[in-house]
Write a sequence for this structure.
């Protein structure tokens, strides 16, 4: 079932935690791009092996076949999910860099998987979200534009998961924290008294706690 939704968050950090969070985020993103390169080589090798000795190979179809890999999740109750090995679509762009995108893929170039991380006011753009760092005020912004299951998709992307894992491990102190506020099409259709307004999706630290208290006191 479709659900159009959006959310926005703003978080204030202490000096020490801001520096730590930003450094860990930048390092984590670089690590993910290195993994993306290794996955691209894996996809390329699978495609070449599958198409070897065959005529009229649909190379793009093979990319789609090997882009996702079944991996196990959990430990006690084993389940499986299809993991996207090319979340940034860099493998596709690197392998099919000829004008004819259905020509035999080229070996991925490591240089295509390098990301420039700005030392000042770092930012990152995902498919469904953006993350911005305000160094002067030690504020980090999280923004998801309205789209079908946009918040769910943003939080499930690798960089989205990295962001929230780091956010959940911040040592919030007095005067720090924040909220994530959002809404969706079903909540907006609530025509009851007080219905349809934006909701608090998450709160962090003392600032988030205070804002949540004020919101529910109204």
């Amino acid at each position: 079932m479709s659900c159009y939704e959006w959310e926005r968050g703003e978080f204030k950090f202490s000096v020490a935690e801001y520096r730590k969070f930003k450094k860990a985020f930048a390092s984590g993103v670089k690590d993910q791009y290195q993994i993306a390169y290794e996955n691209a080589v894996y996809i390329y090798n699978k495609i070449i092996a599958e198409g070897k000795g065959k005529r009229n190979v649909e190379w793009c179809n093979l990319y789609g076949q090997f882009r996702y890999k079944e991996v196990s999740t959990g430990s006690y109750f084993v389940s499986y999910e299809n993991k996207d090995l090319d979340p940034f679509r860099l493998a596709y762009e690197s392998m099919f860099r000829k004008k004819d995108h259905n020509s035999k893929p080229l070996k991925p170039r490591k240089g295509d998987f390098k990301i420039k991380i700005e030392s000042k006011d770092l930012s990152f753009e995902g498919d469904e979200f953006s993350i911005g760092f305000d160094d002067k005020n030690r504020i980090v912004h999280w923004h998801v534009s309205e789209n079908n299951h946009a918040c769910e998709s943003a939080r499930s992307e690798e960089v989205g998961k990295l962001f929230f894992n780091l956010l959940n491990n911040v040592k919030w102190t007095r005067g720090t924290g924040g909220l994530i506020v959002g809404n969706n099409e079903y909540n907006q259709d609530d025509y009851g008294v007080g219905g349809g307004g934006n909701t608090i999706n998450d709160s962090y630290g003392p600032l988030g706690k205070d804002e949540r208290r004020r919101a529910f006191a109204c």
Remarks:
- The two ends are 33 Å apart (CA to CA).
- Residues 194 and 218 are 10 Å apart (CA to CA).
- The mean pLDDT is 90.
- The helical segments are 15-51, 59-67, 90-95, 150-156, 158-167, 185-188, 205-217.
